[in-house]
Every structure is written in C-alpha cells, then in structure tokens.
Amino acid sequence: MDYLLQNCKVVPAVVPTAGTVAAMTATVVNATGFSRALFVVATGAAATGATLDAKIQKSSASGGTYSDVTGAALTQVTAAAGASKVYGIDVTVDPAKPFMKVVGAVATDTFANGSVCILYSGSGSYPNAAPATEAVLA
User: Fold this and answer.
1) For residue 69, how far is the Cα from the chain centroid?
2) 80 near 52, Cβ under 8 Å?
3) Mean pLDDT of the chain
4) Are 31 and 94 in contact (CB under 8 A)?
5) Which CATH class is domain 4-137?
6) Which residues are CB-neighbours of 73 under 8 A, at least 6 positions away?
7) Can you tell me the distance from the alpha carbon of 41 to that of 112, in angstroms, rounded to the nearest whole number?
8) Cβ neighbours of 134 (radius 10 Å)
9) Within 10 A of 125 (CB to CB), how many other CB atoms are there?
10) Can you give the pTM of this predicted structure?
C-alpha cells in the first residue's frame, strides 16, 4: 500500500501568524533532491480591507541572493474574498537554485496566514497531464 507522505517531504515555509501589517516570516526551504515544490498558503481571519501578497523566490544558497520564480505569485488576496482559504503555488525546483522561500506581506490591516511546502519528485503518472512548469491554484 502506498502512502502520500512516503513520496514527499512536508516542511514549514511561513511561520503561522495572526498576520499583523508586515512582511511574512519566511522559512527557507531546501529542495535539494526534489524536482517539484508545492507551497500551500493558508489564510485565516482578515480585517476589513486587509490584503495579502505572496510569491516564491529561489537562490543557489540559503543565505544568498533570491530572485523571483516566474509565474509563481498569488493574485493579491483580499479580506473580502480570501479569508479562511487555502492556496497552492506549485513550482519546478531549479537544481542550480534549490533554496526557496515565500516572500509576501500583509497590508492595510491584520490577515492571519501561514504556509508549508510539500517537496516531491513530480515524476509519477498523472490522470490527465503533468502539471505546468509553474501553477498557482486558488
């Protein structure tokens, strides 16, 4: 019998927070040895007018210079439509830049948030087609 977690690794990506107006507290994800990374961003309660922005960046070293992963950003999440929801950003791991993190911020007012990253091989069979190079799921 196969289990999902025997083929992947789940690691923290953003420390869960009540979401005060500030940058998200990212945790660097080392994706060495994996070909795909699914960042799962969860939101909670949001004050009226609050917004949340999030994107994925990559680097060749944990403490190195990070650059944006093309196509790996959420459309701005608003309190009115995005409170208490789950979003996914699925990206290809660049072997030359396997260190990744969620870069984002809460603006205007509080917006609870947190994130985990599911690292996996992406080499299995898919019922329809393999996932796109980068995909944002909302």
Assistant:
1) 11
2) no
3) 89
4) no
5) mainly beta
6) 53, 54, 55, 56, 89, 136
7) 11
8) 15
9) 5
10) 0.87
User: Which pair of tokens denotes residue 51?
Assistant: 């917004």
Tokens of 14: 């953003």
Confidence at 19, pLDDT banded by 50, 70, 90: confident
Q: Out of 50-54, 76-80, 95-99, 132-136, which region has the weakest mean confidence (pLDDT)?
A: 132-136
Rounded-to-integer distance, Cα 20 and Cα 36, Å: 30
User: Residue 92's closest CA among 28, 41, 34?
Assistant: 34
SS3 track for the chain: CCCHHHCEEEEEEEEEECCCCEECCECCEECCCCCEEEEEEEEEEECCCCEEEEEEEEECCCCCCCEEEEEEECCCEEHHHHCCCEEEEEEECECCECEEEEEEEEECCCEEEEEEEEEECCCCCCCCCCCCCEEEEC
pLDDT score, position 121: 87
Tell me the pLDDT tens digit for each residue of 25-66: 999 999 999 999 999 999 999 999 999 999 999 999 999 999
